[in-house]
Amino acid sequence: AVYIGGGFPETNIREICHNKDLMRSLKIAAENGLPIYAECGGLIYLCKDIELNEDIFELSGIFPVGIKMSKKPAGHGYSTSLVQKHNPFYPIGLQIKGHEFHYASINKQYDEIEMCLEMTRGNGAVNGWDGLFYKNVFATWQHTHSQGLPEWSDAMIRLAITNKNILS
User: Fold this and answer.
1) Distance CA 2, CA 94 (A)
2) Which of 1, 24, 120, 155 has the most crowded Cβ, counting Cβ within 10 A?
């Protein structure tokens, strides 16, 4: 399994985008079922591209969306979401508490995306929704603390065991 945490990938975007082999390998592994969980900056990395200062940089492309950076926060503060749709990590009805802090937002969709988290507090990704998912890949703007969300680690372990031969 792969966990991609938050951060500010835009600060090193040229170096990140230079590693095309890693992005291509990650996308192939995701297509084959590798469990991937990403928060905030990790979500950005899993998208198709990012617009930064009018330049567009290609990313891993696991999610068919474009990201745009802004000068002001697009999400900032405590957040709460409710799982509304079946996904690989969380059961329907689970409430997730965390926080958002990001200057990026989804500015275009190249294809349909699925989201499973309805935001009850916070902005989320699109129109009050967050939690993009595809196969065993899950990405969110919402940062959580693993000790406050045991479902996260249980799902990572379960998915990793189920898919342990993907990279062999």
Assistant:
1) 23
2) 155
Place of tokens 């898919």: 163
Instruction: Say if CB 81 and CB 131 are below 8 A apart.
Output: yes
Q: What is the pLDDT of residues 109-138, one digit of tens each?
A: 888 899 999 999 999 888 999 999 999 999
Which residues, 6+ apart, have CB-to-CB distance to 22 below 8 Å? none
Catalytic site positions: 40
* Overall pTM > 0.85: yes
Instruction: Give Cα 137 to chain centroid, integer Å.
Output: 8
Name beta bridge partners: 95: 82
Dihedrals phi, psi of 40, to nearest 5 degrees:
55, -100
Alpha helices in 107-168 (DSSP H): 150-162
DSSP tag of 12: G
Are the beta carbons of 5 and 46 closer than 8 angstroms?
A: no
Instruction: Look at residue 157 and tell me whether its pLDDT is greater than 90.
Output: yes
Pairing of strands 55-58, 47-52: antiparallel
The β-bridge partners of 56 are 51
